[in-house]
Prior knowledge:
By secondary structure, the chain is an alpha+beta fold. The protein folds into two domains: about 15-130, Glutamine synthetase, N-terminal domain (Ubiquitin-like (UB roll)); about 140-460, Glutamine synthetase/guanido kinase, catalytic domain (Creatine Kinase, Chain A, domain 2). About 35% of the residues lie in helices and about 20% in strands. It contains 13 helices and 15 strands. The chain has helices spanning about 20-30, 55-65, 135-150, 170-175, 190-195, 200-210, 235-255, 300-310, 375-390, 415-420, 425-430, 435-450, 455-460, and strands at about 35-40, 50-55, 65-70, 95-100, 110, 115-125, 150-165, 215-220, 225-230, 235, 260, 275-285, 340-345, 350-355, 360-365. Helix 6 (about 200-210) crosses helix 7 (about 235-255), helix 9 packs across helix 11 (about 425-430) and helix 10 runs antiparallel to helix 12 (about 435-450). The protein is globular and about 60 Å long.
Amino acid sequence: xxxxxxxxxxxxxxxxxxxxxxxxxxxxxxxxxxxxxxxxxxxxxxxxxxxxxxxxxxxxxxxxxxxxxxxxxxxxxxxxxxxxxxxxxxxxxxxxxxxxxxxxxxxxxxxxxxxxxxxxxxxxxxxxxxxxxxxxxxxxxxxxxxxxxxxxxxxxxxxxxxxxxxxxxxxxxxxxxxxxxxxxxxxxxxxxxxxxxxxxxxxxxxxxxxxxxxxxxxxxxxxxxxxxxxxxxxxxxxxxxxxxxxxxxxxxxxxxxxxxxxxxxxxxxxxxxxxxxxxxxxxxxxxxxxxxxxxxxxxxxxxxxxxxxxxxxxxxxxxxxxxxxxxxxxxxxxxxxxxxxxxxxxxxxxxxxxxxxxxxxxxxxxxxxxxxxxxxxxxxxxxxxxxxxxxxxxxxxxxxxxxxxxxxxxxxxxxxxxxxxxxxxxxxxxxxxxxxxxxxxxxxxxxxxxxxxxxxxxxxxxxxxx
Length: 466
C-alpha cells in the first residue's frame, strides 16, 4: 500500500471534499438522472444500515434535518433480534427514534445502482446530542483527542475476501456448505488465474473509482477464491467511511454478477481473510512526525506511538477481533499474528513497521475481514495516545520468527477479549463507561448465542461414534 504523506490530504470534515457536492446532486435530481438517495449509518457490527429516500425529499427535508431510525439499530445481533441489557435501547424506553444526521462530506454516487447516490451519517438523539455508542462517533472522539495533542491520524485498510461462483441465494439454500470458490488453487499474485475473475473484480474497482475512491490495486491471495483490493490512505474518518462503503458495495456488485463474497475472518481451515490497517501520524499542518534521527530512523514520538499500541493491544483486542470467528485466524505460521511484538518489515509480528521517511507507518496485522473499521481505527488511535501521553519506552525490536518467541500473545478467544475489555482502564478512560459497557454486552450476546448452538463439527464427530 502506498502511504507517502505529502500534506495534500483533504480534511474529512469539509463539504468541499465530497466526491459529489450538494449542488451537483441538485442538478442531477433536476435532470432526472438521480432519483434515490441512500441514507446510511454504520451499526455496531460494521454494517451499513439505513433507508432509501426520494431524492427531492432528501434535498428538501432530510439534508437539513436528518432522517429518523429506531434506536435498536445499534443494539441488535447479526440477525436483527432485539436484545435485552443495552442501556441505550430497550422495551423499557419504548425503542424510540434516533436521528441519522447526514455528513455532506460523504455524499457520492452509487454507480452500480441506477439513479442512486448515498450519504453516510452521524447518529444523534432527538435533542441533537451524539449517540456515544455509535462507531462513527467513537472514532470522532478519538480523532478529537489526538488533534488536541497536535496530531492527525492517517489510515489505510487492506481488506481481503473470498469470492464464490454461487450466488448469495444459492449459498443460503446450501446452508453455506459445499460452495464453489472462484479459483481452484493458491493464486497469490497470480495474473493468469485472477484474469478469470476480472469481470467481477474490475467492476468493483471501476465502480469504486466512479464513486470517488482511489483504487491502488487488486491481487489474488492464498485461499481458494481469495482476493484483496486496496485503496489510497486517507484521514482516519474518511478512510473508514470509504471502507464501509466499499465493503457493502463489493457485496452488491458481486451479487449483480451472480457471485457471492464473504469477509469472514476464517471461512475454512485454510488461510483467513485479514484487514491489515496502515496507521501513521502528521502534525496538524500535514508534516510527518514519525521519522526522525533515532534508531531505525524513528523520532521519539514514533517510539511512544508503537509502544502504546503494543501496551494496549490485549485490552483493546475486541475492537479488532469482535466475533467468535475472528479468533480462528490467529494460527502460528499462517501470516496472521499471534505474538504482540513489533518488527521492521516482519510479517510474523502483530505490528510491522514499513516505509521510510515520509512514508513510514505501522501496519497492524491483527484485524480480520469482519472488523468494524471505525472501532478498529479508534482503538489504534486510543492506544497511540496512551503511548504518547505516558511517553512509554519502546521494547526491543523482534527479529526472526515472532511465532516462536516468548512475547505476550493476542487473546485466543472472544471470552478472554471480552474480559480484558471489561476491565480495561485504557478503554474506560479513552471511550467512557457507556461505550465499553455497550460493547462488552455485545460480546456477551455473541458468546451466549454460540454457547447455545450445536455445530456441524459436533454432529459429525459425535452422532455415530460416541
